[in-house]
Amino acid sequence: MQLHEKLKVMRLCKNWSQEEMADKLGYSVNGYAKIERGETDLKLEKLSHISDILGIELQQLLGLNEKNIFNIIDNSPPQGSQSCNVYLTESQCAHELEKYKLLLQERDKEINYLKQEIEYLKEFVSLLKNNPS
After folding, report:
1. Do both 111 and 61 map to the same domain?
2. How far from 79 is each of 71, 72, 97, CA to CA, in Å?
3. Which listed site, 5, 70, 112, 125, has its alpha carbon 20 to 30 Å from 32?
């Protein structure tokens, strides 16, 4: 996948039109369209600006390739939830997986705590019912 194709994929992942992307970059629509068609040579400064707008690191943008793993979901209105693929390396995926495992552990702790609280409150209500004084 060539850089201009990656830019188009990333823009589509954001559910942005070429007009919106051009506006965010301060470019004309025609100028941005030429970038996506591969008709414009991009200097590092322009690429850096584009990656900032897309919300990714420049090295990620330059490193995107077909061998990486696809993995991001973009929930962009107005169409609702749309799947969109963005490349993550194996180590990035492992890191994300570890984060989610920790979040699940914390969720399980919270659930257990809330179950204990419910039991305590049930006992308390039962005591109140049995001792109305």
Report:
1. no
2. 20, 17, 28
3. 70
